[in-house]
Automatic annotation (TrEMBL):
Residues 61-115 form the Carboxymuconolactone decarboxylase-like domain. Gene3D superfamilies: AhpD-like (1.20.1290.10). It comes from the Bacteria. GO terms for molecular function: peroxiredoxin activity. InterPro entries: AhpD-like (IPR029032), CMD-like (IPR003779). This is Carboxymuconolactone decarboxylase-like domain-containing protein. Transmembrane segments: none annotated. PANTHER family: CMD DOMAIN-CONTAINING PROTEIN, SI:CH211-175M2.5. The lineage of its organism: Bacteria, Pseudomonadati, Pseudomonadota, Betaproteobacteria, Burkholderiales.
Length: 182
């Protein structure tokens, strides 16, 4: 059981409140993981800044969710796996591809498989990608700048995954059907 408080807008440190308001506006709720992260205005501020960049990059929302779900599985963050399962399905990933990612396998869709494989490999190799890793990604139709954009998404999700693994927030009711265990 976590000893970290899940903050509301009212209980959060003053500097964390604008981020919580923004998340509530975007999602219709404050995700429990953000409520836990709000304990540190530095963490929640960094989190929102990098996520805004991620969602304004070159990847589609479905591609971003492929990356985020893969990262959550690879980092074994149970909260993030459930959350990004729901978002991946909402963004149009096939249930079979979502299940493959949750099982640690590559999705059937060629581009989603390349995204998932590259980010999982980057985590497992701690960023030491070789030419074959990068070339496989490029051969799936991506560009060199997108290899580095994957690093940005990976950094953003690492913030969430590590914070979730440390604070262990409870899973909200809308995501309960997507519970996952490592």
């Amino acid at each position: 059981m976590s000893t970290f408080h899940i903050h509301t807008i009212e209980s959060a440190p003053e500097q964390s409140r604008p981020v919580l308001r923004q998340l509530e506006q975007n999602f219709g709720l404050i995700p429990n993981i953000a409520g836990a992260m709000a304990e540190s205005p530095v963490l929640i501020g960094g989190f929102i800044g990098i996520f805004q960049k991620v969602h304004s990059g070159t990847f589609t929302e479905a591609q971003i969710q492929t990356l985020l779900l893969t990262n959550a599985v690879t980092n074994a963050c149970t909260w993030a796996v459930a959350f990004h399962t729901a978002l991946a399905l909402k963004e149009g990933l096939s249930p079979a591809d979502v299940e493959a990612i949750r099982d640690g396998r590559a999705p059937a869709d060629r581009q989603h498989a390349a995204l998932s494989t590259l980010t999982k490999t980057a985590i497992e190799k701690r960023g030491h990608l070789d030419d074959n890793d990068v070339n496989s990604f490029l051969e799936a139709g991506f560009r060199k700048d997108q290899v580095l954009e994957v690093v940005t998404v990976l950094a953003a999700s690492t913030i969430t995954n590590y914070a979730g693994n440390i604070t262990r927030p409870p899973l909200e009711a809308p995501f309960q059907e997507y519970v996952w265990t490592a």
